[in-house]
Amino acid sequence: MANEEKKEALLSVRHMEVCFGKRRNRFKAVDDVSFDIYRGETFGVVGESGSGKTTIGRAIIRIHPMTKGEVFYRGQKINGKISKELDRTVTRRIQMIFQDPMASLNERAKVDYIVSEGLYSGGVKYSKAQREEKVSKALSDVGLLPEFASRFPHEFSGGQRQRIGIARALIMEPEFIIADEPISALDVSIRAQVLNLMNELQKQRGLTYLFISHDLSVMRFVCDRIAVIHKGVMVELAGCEQLFRHPLHPYTRALLSAVPMPDPRREKEKQIFVYDPAIHDYSVDKPKWVEIEEGHFVRGNEKELASYRERVQ
Amino acid sequence: MTEPILSVRGLHVMFNLRGRKLHAIRGVDLDVMKGESLAIVGESGSGKSVFVKTFMGLLDANGWIDGGEIVYNGEKLTDYKTEKQWLKIRGGEIAMVLQDPMTSLNPLKTIGAQIIEAIELHRPLRGRESYGEMISLLKDVGIPEPERRAKQYPHEFSGGMRQRVVIAIAVACRPKVLICDEPTTALDVTIQAQILKLIRSLKEKYDLTTIYITHDLGVVANVADRIAVMYAGDIVEIGACDEVFYDPKHPYTWALLSSLPQLGEKGEDLYSIKGTPPNLFADVRGDAFAPRNPQALKIDFVKQPPYFQVSPTHRAKTWLLDPRAPKIEPPESVKRLASEGVSGFGE
User: Fold this and answer.
1) Residues B179-191: what's their mean pLDDT?
2) In the sheet where B226-231 sits, what is the strand order?
3) Distance in angstroms between the alpha carbons of the first and the last residue of chain B
4) Domain residue spans in chain A?
5) Domain A2-312 classification at class level
6) How far apart are CA A122 and CA A130, in angstroms?
7) Which one, A75, A268, B59, B220, has the greatest CB density within 10 A?
8) CA distance B259 to B254
9) Nearest residue on chain A to B256, judged by CA atoms?
10) For residue A157, what is the nearest residue in chain B, using CA coordinates?
11) Which helix (H) or strand (E) holds B322?
């Protein structure tokens, strides 16, 4: 957990809204989402498919344009029109790790090129020797042999390919990494390796992660704070342990109840909640975004908030 | 337990890959009991999918059964030569649900037509009757408004709904055994829980024997009566669900369990299995897991361990169970699971 004194917001998202389509087909994927990510922490975004969690990550890295709202990186606005210089720094400083290591690597390029590709466009010119040195450093940082640089992606297993994906992000010396479901496509035993690697890199380099996933069991293991997204709307935000101890919003409770447990006794007694948005009656009393205990935010109307307050006590 | 519906004895499967022989299944013995729910767990490449494919004669063209036998309800499946013989088994007796619902449906046919096709292939129903059966199947798998949905195409369904349709097709021919190969890997956690619940309820309703294949031990605690742990083409441990979770004996089972993030302690490294599974092109000597096991005994590298019986239902292939072996404790997280269970989730 980030200590109190170094709670500096590295990235702030304010009232982010992302829409797809035009006119009648207009679809709001992300609706008024705001949060801060502090330096050195792992911030989790959890939600089911279609909740807009990936869109948030992609809007931050400017793959999708935002229709409303702002993103600040170290206090500077980075969405919309920005100077070329800032654009370059942001591209360097914010990197992404993708979900499927089978699909995210160029099959026809050698590892050498895949990892070093970002260096070509950074504005700084590197000599061939410098590039090679950086590639072999990045590869050994993620636990691969520098010799692998001359191979093609298909020669690697899923876990190794995901490491190549991480090396590609690391070579830019980023401060902030967006990891979109980095382990969902991997085997259980390899998941552990990739999670450990990400943890270790964070300790060594003070990286900040935005960790996007649908699986709360992994989130509990890696995240400091977690935001729960449902249909593009943030419904709860809390410190990891807070969220697991007192999940308040019914959607969070549904997600939590669905986490598979390697514990037959617990599993036999477990009840699965299915979240039905119709239980909220927001016709009169509009929902608000309220801090219910320190660092624990939840969305609800007055009546719901009252019951949430009781549960936190 | 009741009598076995499917029994496998000393099964070996080989593949021919560019002139080299790969020994994918190395002498597996297994009895699947009538009406039980069995889970086969292992890493990718452990041979779990290949193993169940032999029950349906679905090995790829470069693979063959190299010894041993499979007996299903008194029929010796390993003697089957022609596709015609297999057609009786596939779908009608043993059906399979595959991992990815995106690729296992035909995108050009309506959902209804695809289910009717399966019904008419295996059962003497036609026309109105098979339509009615299709609608009731869709209801059974929990698809709302079946009449309207039956006219739709796969792309109009979400991933979870598609998997429900695949399950409807699988049970359409009233099979006795349902094999679910990673049925939920491609799905969200919330949907995953619902699909597992659905399979369990269908198992009761249609009196099925179910075999789950998965790499994630977390998924099967809820659904399996028995668990078989597979490594390098062999079952290294098998036992009742509680026995495998609370009293695992094989170091590989320990490793699989302790690499689950649910059991990890925050801030510490998660246990990860070092190295890679053995190369099955070469002969495996001794215990296949020994090279990746930091606490392996000397004998593990020399001689393959036999099964040691732990209880009437629980046996494991590890020298640690030999009375002469030194006492090696399972990892802390595995012991904690047995004593306290998983903690930290919810109130």
Assistant:
1) 84
2) B94-97, B177-181, B209-214, B37-41, B226-231, B234-240, B314-316, B308-311
3) 37
4) 2-312
5) alpha beta
6) 14
7) B220
8) 9
9) A189
10) B276
11) none
Q: For A221, which of B43, B216, B270 is closest by C-beta distance?
A: B270
Backbone φ and ψ for B306, nearest 5 degrees, come out as -85, 180
Touching check for A75 and chain B: CB below 8 Å? no
Please report the residues numbered 157 through 196 in chain A whose beta carbons come closer than 8 angstroms to any beta carbon of chain B.
Answer: 157-158, 187-193, 195-196
DSSP letters for A104-119: SS-TTS-HHHHHHHHH
Nearest Cα to A105, choosing from A92, A117, A95? Answer: A117
Tell me A150's DSSP state: G
CA–CA dist B193, B309 (Å, integer): 33
ipTM: 0.81
Decide if A221 touches B, using CB distance below 8 A. yes
Cross-strand bridge partners of residue B16: B21
Residues in chain B: 347
Q: How many CB atoms lie within 10 A of CB B242?
A: 18
- Confidence grade of residue B116 (pLDDT, cut at 50, 70, 90): very high
Q: What is the mean pLDDT of residues B332-342?
A: 84
What does residue B245 show for φ and ψ, rounded to 5 degrees? -80, -40
Contacts of B258 (CB under 8 A, 6+ apart): B270, B271, B331, B333, B334
Q: Calculate the dihedral angle through the C-alpha atoms of A227, A230, A232, A238, rounding to the nearest 10 degrees.
A: -10
**A96 CB-contact burial (10 Å; exposed 0-12 / middle 13-18 / buried 19+):** buried
pLDDT of residue B58: 86
User: What global pTM score does this model have?
Assistant: 0.86
Q: Say yes or no: A266 contacts chain B, CB-CB below 8 A.
A: yes
pLDDT digits (tens, 9 = 90+) for B13-47: 999 888 888 888 998 999 999 999 999 998 888 88
Pairwise CB contact (< 8 Å): A262 & B266? no
How far, in Å, CA of B13 to CA of B53, rounded? 11
Cα distances from A245 to residues A241, B131, B267, in angstroms, run: 6, 49, 18
Residue from B192, B270, B340 to probe the interface with A (highest A Cβ count within 10 Å): B270
Does A273 contact chain B (CB < 8 Å)?
A: no
Q: Can you name the residues that pair with B316 across neighbouring β-strands?
A: B237, B308
| Residue in chain A lying closest to B186 (CA) | A185
Give the whole-angstrom CA distance, residue A173 versus residue A205.
9
What integer pLDDT is reported at residue A2 of this predicted model? 44
Contacts of A149 (CB under 8 A, 6+ apart): A110, A111, A112, A115, A132, A135, A136, A139
Helix or strand run (H / E) with residue B11: strand B4-17
pLDDT averaged over chain A? 87
- The count of residues in chain A is 313
Query: CB distance A240–B345 less than 8 Å?
Result: no
Q: Which residue has the tokens 């050698």?
A: A110
Cα separation, A90 vs A149, whole angstroms: 27
